[in-house]
Structure formats: C-alpha cells, structure tokens
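Entry 14. Two folds queued back to back today. First construct below, sequence then structure tokens.
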Amino acid sequence: MTPVPPPAAELSADDARRIALRAQGFLGAPDRRAGVRGVLRHLGAVQLDTISVLARSHELIPYARLGAVGRDTVERAYWTDAHAFEYWSHAACILPVEEWPHFAFRRRAYRDRPQWYHDLPDGAYDAVIKQLRAEGPLTATDLGGAKNKGEWWDWSESKVAVERALMYGEVVCTERRGWKRVYDLAERAIPDALLHDDLDDTECLRRLVRLAGQALGVGTRADIADYHRLKGEQFDAVVADSGLVPVTVAGWSKPAWADPQALASEPRGRHRTTLLSPFDSLIWERARTERIFGFTHRLEAYVPKPKRVHGYFAMPLLSGGRLLGRVDPAREGSTLVAKRVFLDSPKTVRPMAQALREAAGWVGCDAVRVEYVDRPELTAQLVAELT
C-alpha cells in the first residue's frame, strides 16, 4: 500500500457524515433544474437491479434526492439523447455517457480475459454484430432468444455473444425495455467524440478514483475503490495524482481521502426525509454505512424468508441526516403496505409517516396500511400520523 502523506484536515465523525450527505445530494437544496440527469452526473453511477417493490432502484435514486419526479420522466432522462449507457461499474450501472472513455481499462481487461464461464461457438459473435448492424437496436429476444431450455444461467449462443460484445465495448446497452437490455452498436450509440479507447489504464483509474471521491465526499481506500469496483492496488497507483487529499476522521481506524471542494465550505442546508433503496450509493457499502451512521443494514431479498429480520426489501429511513429506522414495503392495488416497520424512538414516528405518505403518492397509492411495528406502543401514533 502506498504511504499516506500528512492529512490536509482533521474531521470529526459528524463532519464526515455531513460531507457525505452533501456529496450524495441529501443535504442542501437539490438541483431541480438539472433534474435526473444532474443526479446521474453528480453521482457518477446509478445501480440497476431486478427487484421492484415500490419501484426499481434506478428510479428510487433520483426520487430520494429530488422528490416525486414522474417515473416516465426518470426513464426518459436516462435513456434519451445519448445521455447515458449501461456498463459494469459498482455493479450493472447507468453511467453518464461522457465517462465512456474512462472505462476503456475495463473493456481492455475483458478483451484480454483468458477464460469465460460460457463457451462461444464459432461465428456466433460475428453473427450478432452483423444482425445489429443490419436491423438496429435489438433485445436478446430479437437476436434469437436469451436462454436455452436449462436454468437461468443457460444462455443462448446469441445472448452469450451479445453480452461478450457489451463487455468488449463493441455493443452498448442503450436502454432497458420491459427490463430487457436493448443493444446497439457502439459506433451508433456513443457520440463520435467519446467513442475511443485512447486513454491508458492509469488515466482511466485516476479519473474514476477522483469521481468516486467527489461522489462520496470523504472515504477510506476501500470506500473509494469499491465505488467503481476497483482493486485496492489500482487505487494505490493513482490516488496521489487524483486530486483527492488525505484527511483523518475521528473514530475511523483507517486513513481517508476527501474531495478538496467538499472541505472548502461547511455542509449546510435542509436535510431530505426519504426512504432509501438498499442499492443507493449513500448506503450500498455496508461497512461504510455502519461507520458513518452507526446503522447496520443488510439486503435480505436473498435470505430465506424464515431467517429475515427486517424483510424482503427493507428501506432505511433517512431524516435529519440520520438513519432512524426502516420499513419493508409492498403494494396491493392502490395501497402501500408497510409490512414491517422499525422505529428507533418515538421521535421517528412523524418522519416515517411523512416518508411513507410521499412514497405512496409517488407510486400512485392513495392509502398506507401498517401491518407490524417493532414497537407496538407506537403503532397507533404512526397510523394517526398517516391519516
């Protein structure tokens, strides 16, 4: 690991928390004029996931920061005017199109990869490229079907080929349609000025480390590297030239780095009260969430139901710059169902009710039903606040 220079600043734990909140768009007035596209540029990556309870996670991200943005507006903002593309970052993520050149290091790594889980029959790759060139943007179904007759990972040869082409950068996912990827040739989908792999690995990594540091405000080596799933040694190789500065944070056992702009002024302004997707970049790294907020959260969607503690898709409640509880929501017709509600204290009742009412209105529900509260004595108060 590269030696860390003397810190540029000493931050309290509270300083670090507020810096992180502002960097992620939860402290201060939201930039409504920039809208969803502004949120994407500011965060640098918005994670995609198949789970849809209130809405899909990539819809919940701008909602949490901007409020009740129309869901159709969210989709159009992401996928029109060659504004964004989908690629592998923290996971499958929507990325600003101007960052295409900075993922050249990852495209090259995929091209040099010696072994793949799926075999690719001779001619299958060229056939997919030829079909896309002739017919324009297509889904895997259009290309001949996504699966064989086996389990979910048993992809058809056309699906294997187009996903390989996506990783190589010859093909781009230009939108999701009914949750299916829509593929097109990069030469058509990416603006000419950005369609290149000219940047070497060092320049790509330097840019992504800087972007991650700006999006987080302050973070450890692991925090910043994890944002775009870089290796620790990749972070070490470029951090000194990334523009980030070393800092110390009270209570953090490991060195940290911060965006100098985040240190230039004190984080102030109104806090958002909202429910967070578990895939929100404010909380997607569990150890960081525990360190900054003293809040342990685990996505339990893939935990066997009898072993779940908080529920299938429990969403943390952010209010006053703190994580104060969580709710596992569901929808039944025009009713938002709070299946399991967890409240830190009686003071959490009102912000939880506010967040539930706003979320219900956003997804077109006109009622909220509470099924379980971990503090039964607060149930009546919560129901009263909701009505």
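Second construct, same run, same settings:
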Amino acid sequence: MTTLSSGFARARRWLREHPLAFDATLAFCTLVAMICSSFTVPGDGHGPPAFGARTPELFSVLLMTLTAAALVLRRRRPMQVLAVTAALAAVEYVLMDPPAPVVMSTVIALYTVASRTDRPTTWRVGLLTMGGLTAAAMVFGSTPWYSQENFGVFAWTGLASAAGDAVRSRRAFVDAIRERAERAERTREEEARRRVAEERLRIARDLHDVVAHHIALVNVQAGVAAHVMDKRPDQAKEALAHVRDASRSALNELRVTVGLLRQQGDPEAPTEPAPGLAVLGELVTTFRNAGLPVEVACADRDRLPAAVDLAAYRVIQEALTNVRKHAGAGAKAEVSVVRVGTTAEVTVLDNGRGSAGRRPGTGPADGPPGDGDGLDSGGHGLVGMRERVTALGGVLTAGPRYGGGFRVHAILPVEARTGEPERPGTAGGTGLRR
C-alpha cells in the first residue's frame, strides 16, 4: 500500500510539473469515454443502458476527435477551446440523431474557463453555454424536449460552471493564505532586523556614555598630575587618585555591560540599579574633582519613570563631559531638573569660551593640560542625547548661548513612549560643540 501511494504521488507530481502532458492524457481519456458512450443507448427507465445497441457515425467520431484534441490547449486558450467545443457540440445536436456525447468536451472546457476567470465571466459564459446547448438538444433532437438527456445537458454544464468557480475560489483562498504567511514572515524578519539595529544602537550609545565620560575625566586628571608632579606632588597624588576612581568606575560599568552582552538567553537581573538622578550627586562630584565647578538645582528626582530618569542622567553626564572637554579654562556649569506639568525639563548651561565657533574634531579647547577631544571628537555625543530623548517622545535642543557658552535643553515626557520613531526636527540643536 505504501509503494502504491508513493507511486501515485510521484505520478501526480510529474503530471503537475508537466501540464501539457496532463492535458493530453485528459483529452485521450475524454475521447475514449465519448466513443464508449456513443455505443450505449440509455435505458427506458426500467432497465440498464444497453451497450452496443448503436454504432456512431463517422462524422460523429470526427467531431469527438476534434473536440478532444482541442482540450490539449485548454490551459493556454480556455475561451477559444470552449467556443470550439461548444460549436461542435451544437453541430452534433443539429446534424446527428441520436447525437454522440460530444458535449463531454464542452463540459471540461467550461470547467476550465470557470476555474481560471472571475465569477461574473463564469456566470455569463456558463449561462450562454448551458442555454445554447440545451436549446439545441431540445429543438433539434428526436426525443421530447422534457427528456432526461436534454436536462442532463443543462445539469452537466451547470455543474461544470459551479465546480470550476468553487475550485477558483479555493485556489484564491489558498493563495491569499500563502501570501499572508509570506508577508508575515517578511515582516517578522524585518522586525527582527530592526530590533537588532536598535539594540546595536542602544549598546553603542551606552558604551559611549560610559567610556567617553570616564576616559575624559581620566585624561584631564592625568594631564593635571603630569603638570604638577614636580612642584606639587600632593596635588598630583590627589589627581592620580581621581584617575584610579574614574578608571575603576569605568571598568565596573563596562564589566556589567559586556556581561549582559555575553549572556545567553534572558539576561539575569542586574545586581546594581541603573544610574539615574538619585546618584546625580556622585556624578557632579567627579566633575568637581576634575576642576569643573557645577551648580545643581534638581527637584522631584525620585518621581520620574525609570526610562526618563536614565535618559535625564545620561543627558546631564554627556553635557557636563562636553563642558569639561570643550568649554575651556575657568568655565562653570549649571544643571537643573524641574517638573513642568507632564514633562521633565533638563537644562545644562555653561559660560565657557572654548566652544565659540568650534566644530567637532578641530583640536582641544583651551584648558588645563591634558584637556583634549577625548573619545567623542567624531560628534556622537549630541547624536546619542538626541536619540535617547526622541526615543521617549521628547525634544532636545543644543546650541551656543548669547554672550558665550553653550546650552543643552531636553524636554522629556513623564510617560515614556519607548520605541516611537524619531520625528524630523524634534532635536533642533546646532551641534556646534561635538
């Protein structure tokens, strides 16, 4: 049984791959069926059909052969094949009595048309074929118009139209399901690629925030230590201690970030809370130790959502790193975080003179020894801040202040809308610094 079913499946697959061979086989089988039926006389209602009671005329055999041959082209020219077979069937009904079953070819041709066209065309062509052949059988046949042979023509042609329409509908339904599945698969792949790109961007942003901040402070403190090593060794030791603390903090944060990246499956819960405004004092202290006076005015720092709290912290961190790297000697910074309605406004101001007319990558601003461009001379700082803010549905502006200095201002909605696409023009900073 298994061998028989596998052989049937192979034969079916081969015929599906070779439609012309299938149609030729169908045409031959139809011709055999028509010739065999032409030798049969239907029963009178009380007995079975009598085989061999009549012999088909040569003209009828010719018509059956022509209509069967026309079925070979039923896929390529369905309308033309239907017209030819219907016309030859009508000729058979008009000229021959009793007629041979040439209409079998017309039934198959009508099914093909119905399965390959739309429903309105099926209705029009089907009604025309059924009406024309049934009328020819009733008018020109020797049997009464109400005989079963005449109504059989109507029934078989109508059944062919209905069956073809059903097959076409099912085929369209299956194609729609397949297309929907393929579209869902493409959408899933695009969504996966988008998520990977977003995750890579988030990782790059986090690494930048950690490394740029700490390495900038290490750079500054190392420059100070080298500058005062000979004359003021105590101050040099203090600067080196700050270098050690900053590098330790950088290593710890990098260890946490890289550890999350190397985990397989769902990451474990972090052992330390994410940085936020609750540790803003520690952040400001590192800048003060690096020689940057910072004044802080922060209200409601513990009432912000986690995503907004982290974004505000990173904006302040990056802005103060900018000030320390580019504002020049004697610069001061002011940080404020206030709650205004349903938003939180973060502002970082400085009065530095090193950022005036300055572009990223043009060299270090004026300042103590060791103050350089650091890791962010390529200008990713403002881009990273803008991405963080706009990802939450907020607005970031950054640019020089009138009279000197620089201003970074972020408006963050308290209800974070993570994953919202960036809207053009929401971060209107000029980007003169970074």
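Quick look at the second one. The radius of gyration is 43 Å. The beta strands are 40-41, 50-51, 294-298, 333-340, 343-350, 395-400, 406-413.
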